[in-house]
Amino acid sequence: MNEISVFWFRRDLRLEDNVGLFAALSGPFPVLPIFIFDPAILDKLENKKDARVEFIRQALSDLKSEIQKRGGDLLILHDNPLAAFKSLAQQYQIKQIITNHDYENYAIHRDSAINLWAKDLGIAFHSFKDQVIFEKNEVLSGQNTPYTVFTPYSRKWKEKFANTEWRQFESENLANYANGSFEMPSLSELGFQPTGIKFPSLNFSDDLIQQYTLRRDFPGLDATSHVSVHLRFGTISIRNLVKRALGKSETWLNELIWRDFYFNITFHFPHISQGIAFRKEYDRMNWRNNEQEFVAWKSGQTGYPIVDAGMRELNQTGFMHNRVRMIVASFLIKHLLIDWRWGEAYFAEKLLDFDFSANNGGWQWAAGSGCDAAPYFRVFNPYLQTQKFDKDLSYIRKWVPEFQELHYPKPIVDHEFARKRVLAAYKEALG
Q1: pLDDT (tens digit per residue) in 275-294
Q2: I need a labelling partner for 374 at 20 to 30 A (CA). Which of 19, 29, 230, 382 fits?
Q3: Residue 297 catalytic?
Q4: Residue in 368, 365, 146, 362 with CA at minimum distance from that of residue 264
């Protein structure tokens, strides 16, 4: 049997500037690149028109073509990861398994099990930092504790970045691949169907980055990069994006740092991965959780045009503008008194760029229960938000064209009434 290294693609679906892939291809053994569609993840996706599965498969098809040009091929499996490796070990003499870190709870336990199995067989298991700039204990306070407020974290992040020698990894220029030719499973073989959603391109201009601070809050403008889905699945590297941000937009750079910050929170405060509020006292909230109102929110039928526009954009495209994400989250929690975890779960189902750390961080920020959160008494007024950020109603007209017609629903709740109700509920819960 041929001696090989296995490189396991996960959230890093690219050849360029891929740390683990660079390490594998620089090693002594030819590299068999693999990707595993894990039934434990896919089976939880109730909607079989899940655009993320389609996006991953499309990215894998592109990746496969690029590897084939370099004399290898990408093996795509649909199996439990440990079972997949056991099967591979019967076909190849695996000398090492190389991958990049994944920080979520399920991934940590999965990787630990495979590492133990590999160790028993004398197979080396190596994992590299690739999807963040700084991780785990790399950015800590002067007291050696994790930051829970973004501004001091970002200052320390920038200071450390300025004093670190950075490189990008030219993994695309290496071609030490194992021989092989493999079929690619179709979307239907994976149990999914096409969605018709158009995925955002990776092409965006430096001008967009430079104008980001001035234009980013206006959903009617096409003024954001839409790069988040590519960052989520690693079709572009974080180092590439930070390099582009430097000297062009501090605000755009800060958005990338927020991502590291939320990964840092997930690592240091694992209770948030178990559905517990970051500030546990907020779990005393007495939510109304009216299911009919939740359905109206999900379907964009609340009678608040800016909220409905955001939800319809999400349902139809898998994307929602960041300013609008804050508005719709605040509305669900504070106008309807529905548990933020319901909204978190719906976003997890619908967002193309769904990432647990950022999604949980954003929802807890809106609820007031998270780290560095908006204070609970801050209640977004959807009408004022519309006046400030969609004054000409271009965003609303696009997604809720009937908002001025008689059959458009009346507001589901009065703003002032809802505001007083939620403030009373928070005061009661927090004492």
Answers
A1: 999 999 999 999 999 999 99
A2: 230
A3: no
A4: 146
The answer to whether residue 314 scores a pLDDT higher than 90 is yes
**pTM to 2 decimal places:** 0.94
Reply yes or no on whether 287 is catalytic: yes
Catalytic residue among 47, 173, 289, 322: 322
Domains of the chain: 3-130 (3.40.50.620), 132-164+205-268 (1.25.40.80), 274-430 (1.10.579.10)
Query: Which one is catalytic: 252, 340, 342, 399?
Result: 340
- Alpha carbon distances (Å) from 400 to 312, 335, 350, 358: 8, 20, 19, 27
Q: Which two tokens stand for residue 206?
A: 């430096």
Among the options 138, 287, 315, 381, which is catalytic? 287
Residue (of 47, 32, 44) closest to 96 by Cα position: 32
Cβ-based neighbour number of residue 210 at 10 Å? 14
Among this protein's residues, is 2 annotated catalytic? Answer: no
Known catalytic residue: 105? no
Q: Is 342 annotated as catalytic?
A: no
